[in-house]
Amino acid sequence: MRITILGGGGFLGRKLALRLAEEGTLGGRPITAMTLFDLAAPAPFPAPFPLTCLGGDIAELPEAAIPSGTDVIFHLAAVVSAAAEADYDLGRRVNLRGTDAVIDACRRLAAPPRVVFTSSIATFSGGQGSILDDGARQIPANSYGTQKAAAEMLLADATRRGFMDAVCLRLPTIIVRPGRPNKAASSFFSAIVREPMLGLETELPVPDDFAVWVASPRSAVGWLIHAAAMDTAPLGLDRSLNLPGMSVKVGEILAAMDQVRQGASSLVKRVADPVIAGIVGGWPPGFRAERAPANGFARHEPLIDVIRAFVADDLEATRLDRGL
Amino acid sequence: MRITILGGGGFLGRKLALRLAEEGTLGGRPITAMTLFDLAAPAPFPAPFPLTCLGGDIAELPEAAIPSGTDVIFHLAAVVSAAAEADYDLGRRVNLRGTDAVIDACRRLAAPPRVVFTSSIATFSGGQGSILDDGARQIPANSYGTQKAAAEMLLADATRRGFMDAVCLRLPTIIVRPGRPNKAASSFFSAIVREPMLGLETELPVPDDFAVWVASPRSAVGWLIHAAAMDTAPLGLDRSLNLPGMSVKVGEILAAMDQVRQGASSLVKRVADPVIAGIVGGWPPGFRAERAPANGFARHEPLIDVIRAFVADDLEATRLDRGL
Hints:
homodimer
């Protein structure tokens, strides 16, 4: 089985690549080759199969990124929300032209590959009051969500035409992201755990009872792998899935952190930020996701396990990376 | 008021242009200039304002098609269903890249213009049993519908960003189209009236009780003009409207025709065609369209008036055009 990960240098792409290298198989079949593609060539790592690392522009996707014989493509390459909002042309180029380039690469293959695409709950709008079911319409309130929703449609059509066999996963907000705080409006959902666990103060711009739809990196990687090997026949024309994340209140995240490290939440300062609250306040805080579990996607682990997994998987690397 | 009609050489575009020339105003403001753009330059006609007719590729939209000071753009340019299905690259180029080119042209204007875009009920799937409400999700079953639905999203986002002020109209199947039969799966819905009225036999590939969501050219043009001048503030983020067409059975169309010309329907031969029935059988035969009338879109005229309007507006021109 030959695999390509587009966006293979990113946070989720790398976790996925490492897990596949560790397992050596996907859907019960041995992995025989892997190609990682990102804007800058991802760093190689030891793997039980030949690993190719390429850098480039996804809108001008080189043929080597999806070589002949590719069975599975994970398409995680994206310009994320804040960046797509700041630079319309860049978002369109990467999120839409990039997806067209993936479609065209699949058309050149002898057999249609499985394509697993990461879409987002940013394709929906709503607000703190709204819990969306699987039939909810996507009315995005940002360019990133618009481009992801449009890409879902193009991939569903490419599937209907026989160019590929696509599964589009609308990922929740991922916590706890390692690394540094960034300017994404959602950055604080990870920072309120990551920074106190590093012994650093951080700011909480929304009230403690603010609700958010989240998933852990472990669950996200598990869902990506399930999507790569699942039976897609039951999906019919609708290739997109709302995933079984968790609706949690910010205060519950802090309480779970304090269970893992007592008093950690004292480093979280309440500093209301109406701009950030306005953006994240437009996202739906919950879904009744029934179709994904019915198609074999695992239910989410408890919140306390999310905090513990961050400590086990990412805390030390983040500390070293940031020189703390 | 300066107006551009993209697809101004097509059937609806030309009817719209002629009606605007006749009225001389739009939304109570005098029309001061009009530009018609199509693949081949549309034929000019006498008008009470300067008229410019241009030909070209919408994906490489020349600046002259949307000159500075343009107030209203009707974006009707499209590769329609059968053609977009037959040629994926052509459909993507015209229906998606063309829409991106319109967005980019609007970004260059000093003030955001009103953009009226013709989308389609082909953005939905369903079947004879389904009556869709305004909250129904678009799950297209063809590339044309996919590209139109994606374009709606891009135009809504361009509106949110302040590039334009878009209204997207999901047009029903238009009957009665003048001209000749063509290879569109929906061609017969017009042919079963047009051909008998010309004294010619035609084939009906579905049963008489087959239901279809239709609108007349007169209603469609009226809706386009309303969309160009309406108050868009109540639309919020959702710039697309299902229009108040009519759900009619094929047998009702034939009965209405016989009321206008007794015995005309004897020229309609029942010849079952499972391929055509399969395609049109995937389209929703009815909508509960409440949002469009609430925003001032006129209810549809009775079916008998649709037949009479075809006779009054288009029958003689079609006869001459076809040398009958």
